[in-house]
Design a protein that fits this description.
By secondary structure, the protein is an alpha+beta fold. Helix content is about 30%, strand content about 30%.
């Protein structure tokens, strides 16, 4: 494969992101989850990234905030 680059998603990428997730997981659960996270704003803006090869989106990753809880200690991430 030729080289590819990674950039933040733009609104026009949303259908292609859905398709990449659908193809990657073989069903639409993850693609629908990504759509729901985006719709609810439950992700880190600027960290929904796409991999692009020859003007086609070939990969996607979405970072969401998490917190880690252990016993009585709560540590926000």
């Amino acid at each position: 494969m030729d080289s590819f680059f990674i950039r933040s998603e733009i609104p026009e990428d949303i259908p292609a992101i859905y398709e990449v997730n659908l193809q990657a997981f073989g069903q639409d659960g993850e693609a629908r989850l990504v759509s729901a996270l985006r719709h609810d704003g439950d992700y880190i803006r600027g960290l929904s990234l796409v991999a692009v090869h020859k003007d086609k989106i070939i990969g996607h990753i979405l970072f969401v905030p998490v917190s880690i809880e252990s016993g009585d200690i709560h540590v926000p991430a």
